[in-house]
Design goal:
heterodimer, A: mainly beta, 6-stranded mixed beta sheet, 11 strands, B: mainly beta, 7-stranded mixed beta sheet, 4-stranded antiparallel beta sheet
Chain lengths: 111, 113
């Protein structure tokens, strides 16, 4: 099956700086890559996703890039704010039936 | 549109007992997945259902089982609870047909004493 690795496991940034989280996947058949944000006491919430026919997608301060050749994708958050502090998970799937998740990145934005 | 709901939100059980957790998907979603989330293991896939049929199963012992009803609601059951079963159990639903975004519920926090 697919194997997704996520780095770093923890990340601290100053408010206003950018944060980058990286994931690699093993199965070249994977074609859908969502990113989730999980706040304390809540379930993961989809924040952005990208499909394999696209190299980059942006939504306000959040962007995701995908390099199919290298089999890695990254989440970029610009102008970070304290409310961005949460755990972020990447995932990959090729069937849509089973999602493979990274181990999560705990992001802390320091005011 | 109502989101994914899970009941109960919190549960405390003792070793050897069994537990049943419930998940109601978003209206119109026919696929449901269950995950176990623990601090050390992240999100581990348990199983996935579509139209009352289990299509995929993760690497968990047979004590973990599930089912889906005709209205797409799903339940998971854990028998003979062990201390290591303490975790947040998450349910996600999505539209069937290819890779589509999954929407998660708030989870059920199970504590086994």
């Amino acid at each position: 099956g697919e194997n997704v690795e996520q780095h770093p496991s923890t990340l601290s940034v100053q408010e206003g700086d950018s944060a980058v989280i990286k994931c690699t996947y093993s199965d070249s058949a994977s074609n859908y890559f969502p990113w989730y944000k999980q706040e304390l006491g809540k379930g993961p919430q989809l924040i952005i996703d990208i499909r394999s026919n696209v190299g980059e997608k942006k939504d306000q301060r959040i962007a995701v890039t995908l390099n199919k050749t290298a089999k890695h994708f990254s989440l970029h958050i610009t102008e970070t704010q304290p409310e961005d502090s949460a755990v972020y998970f990447c995932a990959a799937t090729y069937t849509g039936n089973q999602f493979y998740f990274g181990t999560g990145t705990s992001l802390t934005v320091i005011p | 549109k109502a989101g994914v709901t899970q009941t109960p939100r919190y549960l405390i059980k003792t070793r050897g007992q069994q537990v049943t957790l419930s998940c109601s998907p978003i209206s119109g979603h026919r696929s449901v997945s269950w995950y176990q989330q623990t601090p050390g293991q992240g999100l581990q896939f348990l199983f996935e259902y579509f139209s009352e049929t289990q299509r995929n199963k993760g690497n968990f012992p047979g004590r973990f089982s599930g089912r889906q009803f005709s209205n797409s609601r799903s339940e998971m059951n854990v028998s003979t609870l062990e201390l290591g079963d303490s975790a947040l159990y998450l349910c996600a639903s999505w539209r069937a047909g290819g890779a589509n975004e999954q929407f998660f519920g708030p989870g059920t926090r199970l504590t086994v004493l």
